[in-house]
Design a protein that fits this description.
single chain, 9-stranded antiparallel β-sheet, about 15% helix, about 25% strand, globular
Length: about 200
């Protein structure tokens, strides 16, 4: 059984249930785009002209050998994204091609550019990112950002949800097969509650 998560759009807003879960600058309420920017700062991948910049965003070229279907390498792109699971779906069965298992083997030719492995189990990549983001202590409550997720509420930037939706949020390595259509990015529709949060954070 896997947890039912989906990627959040840049203009979605996360309200963490506990301030202790807050990453980087300690804000409990943050727009996804700002959180990803802070992650880029920590990973030192802020130059948009650099190929490694796409670790967060479009993704960088990679291939994966699935631990349960280890017959051939699947070509595609790997990226770090922020995912959300609504409370009612959190532990329901959901097998998705985007999810990477810890025992899958990931090959990322340009991984060395940020000090990451170039060929290793997915669990090794997670350990690398935990260390880089300061989340490696299991006893440390922020550790769960890179595993089961932390409790939160999300306000959709495109106005598709009615108010705050409770659930779990996490940072995740996501694999996008080359033959998969691109995920369309949401755009803001002038949601009044969202606009006020944006103004407050500026």
């Amino acid at each position: 059984m896997t947890m039912n998560f989906y990627p959040l759009a840049d203009n979605d807003v996360i309200q963490l249930d506990w301030t202790a879960h807050a990453l980087f600058d300690g804000k409990a309420c943050v727009i996804v785009e700002d959180l990803l920017k802070r992650a880029r700062d920590y990973l030192k991948i802020t130059n948009a002209e650099s190929g490694r910049y796409n670790w967060i965003g479009k993704g960088i070229e990679a291939s994966v050998l699935r631990h349960q279907m280890a017959t051939e390498w699947q070509e595609g792109f790997v990226r770090i994204c922020i995912e959300f699971s609504p409370l009612e779906l959190y532990e329901k069965e959901n097998l998705t091609c985007l999810a990477l298992h810890g025992d899958d083997i990931l090959r990322v030719p340009t991984g060395a550019e940020i000090g990451a492995p170039t060929l290793a189990k997915v669990s090794a990549f997670y350990n690398f990112f935990r260390e880089k983001l300061g989340l490696q202590e299991v006893s440390y409550i922020k550790y769960y950002w890179l595993s089961r997720g932390v409790e939160c509420k999300v306000l959709k930037g495109d106005g598709s949800s009615k108010g705050w939706q409770p659930g779990f949020v996490r940072l995740q390595l996501e694999f996008l097969p080359k033959n998969m259509p691109e995920v369309s990015e949401s755009t803001s529709t002038g949601h009044s509650e969202l606009d006020s949060l944006r103004q407050a954070s500026n």
